[in-house]
Design a protein that fits this description.
The complex is a heterodimer.
Chain A lengths: L6 E4 L3 H12 L6 E4 L15 H5 L11 H6 L2 E4 L4 E5 L4 E4 L4 E3 L2 E4 L3 E3 L12 E3 L3 H16 L4 E4 L3 H12 L4 E4 L12 H13 L3 E3 L4 E7 L2 E7 L4 E3 L2 E4 L3 E3 L2 H5 L8 E3 L10 E3 L4 E4 L5 E2 L4 H15 L11 E6 L2 E7 L6 E7 L4 E8 L2 E8 L2 H12 L6 H5 L13 H4 L3
Parallel strand pairs in A: 1-2, 1-7, 2-3, 7-19, 9-16, 10-11, 10-16, 11-12, 18-20
Antiparallel strand pairs in A: 4-5, 5-6, 8-17, 13-14, 14-15, 20-21, 22-23, 23-26, 24-25, 25-26
Helix pairs in contact in A: 1-8
Chain B lengths: L2 E5 L5 E5 L6 H7 L19 E4 L12 H7 L10 E3 L13 E3 L6
The chains are: A alpha/beta, B alpha+beta.
């Protein structure tokens, strides 16, 4: 493989930037082009629904790396540059302006797109979703307008994004209602005990939570959103609506180019796609696990780890991403940290104080640890990460026993395991 | 404009001029230093911006918060008495001349 031949990276988010940086660390010295659709250099998205949404700030404060790094690493950063097609036979990508870039190897880090509500009124002004800097700014402004006009904010969806936006809006003084279609919060990823803690938390801060609320229509008045109507006929007045009902992988380019896609661009542990000249990383991917199951992760860790794997793959090396997945969310005074994947669990035990809350929920399948959600219990989270990364499991009884020292399971392993 | 010197894991020294109020993590990321990961972007949530502070400077720093102390118990490299998370260290004039060292690994 010609180590100098040009590499193009499509998507200048956290994953795209990581691929670029890791390629240089892996010794790639050829032309490296990073194409991003947005006007901003690669930036960190997590603050957009948290601190940055509340406090605002410069885009520079969100940057993954400063401008000097692009120059030093000779990364040709093309902003406002949407790639509209991949021509695999000629090995070229075509930009929205019709120009073409040749590549020898290609990386896709196209991210994900917020799902939209398939109901009347969903595109009315004042109906917003969160993905990028512009969205966060628009939501921040809309929340402040709601406060100024004493009109409520309605959040559709009781998942991470919806709840973080709800918490931020309460801090800014808005009246907030969250409409969740299912009977509890964050039901896709957490056990009922954790959902209940967050419901209590949000209610104690004055957020109105409505469960089983199937949104049927967004009602406009004079060309702007005015209310949300649910299937049971209820109407919720709204100065603004934030829709947080999940994201879909942005795999359109890859699918059009004939790459294997299934709920995302299918990659292996080493971030390789079905085309040996193309790697992919981040939200746009679906990773095939050893047991054949596909996992989609939407997280910073996934962007970074797969980004490193993708860079290695493009250099002809194998660098599998095998660490336990981890995520976090900040809502009011609760720091939620999650490690592992709890799908398929058959037992949950808790450790710590449920009332405060300061506890962890340990998920087991057939007595084996799958995942741990920690609420204001940072040590549990870090210890669980080490246990999962080392394939170790406490028994459910040990996990539930506050006197039992989880790190004792790691003793004797530390020397060989190489830590987190 | 406090000047902070960062020692990369391979021993290279890089001196940066920080803005007052900027975190040591932010400046290191902007400069593309290699010994830092800062995965969570400065939320005290990942312990991947770990650094060792020159011991004689320790008492000039704001003491670590409870969150930082807890995160420090689980850094990937060796934790030492002078371990800090650089996302929690804010540049001020009194820190002009400070040197911090990045450990050999962050995760």
């Amino acid at each position: 493989m010609d180590q100098q031949a040009p590499i193009v990276i499509v998507g200048a988010g956290q994953a795209g930037m990581q691929i670029a940086e890791s390629l240089r660390q892996e010794g790639f010295s050829g032309t490296l082009t990073l194409c991003g659709e947005e006007p901003h250099p690669p930036y960190q998205r997590p603050p957009l629904s948290k601190k940055w949404l509340i406090e605002g700030g410069t885009t520079a404060s969100l940057a993954v790396r400063g401008p000097a790094v692009m120059e030093r690493l000779r990364i040709d950063l093309k902003l406002n540059s949407r790639v509209r097609a991949i021509d695999r036979s000629r090995r070229q990508v075509e930009l929205a302006d019709g120009s073409r870039l040749p590549y020898e190897r290609l990386a896709l880090a196209t991210g994900s797109l917020p799902r939209t509500l398939p109901i009347p009124g969903a595109s009315l002004p004042g109906v917003l979703a969160l993905r990028g800097i512009a969205d966060s700014r628009a939501i921040g402004e809309a929340i402040r307008r709601c406060v100024a006009e004493a009109r409520p904010l309605v959040v559709v969806g009781g998942g991470f994004i919806g709840l973080e936006v709800a918490a931020a809006a309460r801090k800014l003084g808005a009246e907030v209602t969250v409409l969740e279609g299912l009977p509890r919060l964050m039901s896709r990823v957490t056990a009922p005990v954790v959902s209940d803690s967050f419901a209590r938390l949000h209610r104690s801060h004055g957020v109105q939570l409505m469960f089983g609320a199937q949104v049927a229509e967004i009602v406009g008045y004079e060309g702007h959103v005015a209310a949300v109507r649910t299937r049971d006929g209820q109407e919720y007045l709204a100065g603004c609506v934030v829709v947080g009902i999940g994201v879909d992988p942005d795999d359109l380019l890859a699918r059009s180019a004939g790459l294997l896609c299934e709920r995302g661009i299918v990659v292996d542990d080493c971030a390789r796609t079905s085309d040996p000249m193309i790697a992919a990383a981040g939200d746009c991917t679906a990773r095939r696990l050893g047991d054949g199951e596909l996992v989609r992760l939407e997280s910073v860790q996934n962007a970074i780890e797969q980004g490193r794997s993708a860079a290695a793959a493009l250099m002809g090396r194998e660098r599998p991403f095998i660490a336990a997945p981890w995520f976090w969310s900040d809502q009011f005074e609760v720091k939620l940290q999650m490690v592992g994947l709890s799908r398929g669990y058959d037992q949950v035990v808790t450790r710590g104080d449920l009332e405060k809350p300061a506890y962890s929920a340990f998920y087991f399948r057939a007595g084996r640890l799958l995942a741990v959600d920690s609420l204001n219990r940072i040590p549990d989270h870090m210890q669980a990460k080490k246990l999962l990364d080392n394939g170790l499991s406490p028994t459910p009884e040990q996990a539930a026993d506050p006197q039992f020292e989880l790190p004792s399971l790691l003793k004797g392993r530390a020397a060989t395991a190489g830590g987190a | 404009m406090p000047r902070i010197t960062y020692l990369e894991p391979d021993g290279r020294a890089v001196t940066l001029e920080l803005k007052r109020g900027q975190t040591l993590m932010r400046a290191a990321m902007d400069a593309g230093l290699e010994g830092i990961e800062a995965l969570c972007g400065g939320n005290c949530n990942c312990a991947t911006c770990h650094c060792y502070v020159q011991p004689e400077w320790l008492d000039k720093l704001q003491p670590p918060s409870d969150d930082e102390l807890v995160m420090l118990t689980n850094v990937a490299a060796e934790r030492r008495p002078n371990s800090r998370l650089s996302c929690q260290l804010v540049a001020e004039d009194a820190l002009d001349g400070l040197t911090v060292q990045f450990p050999d690994r962050q995760s």
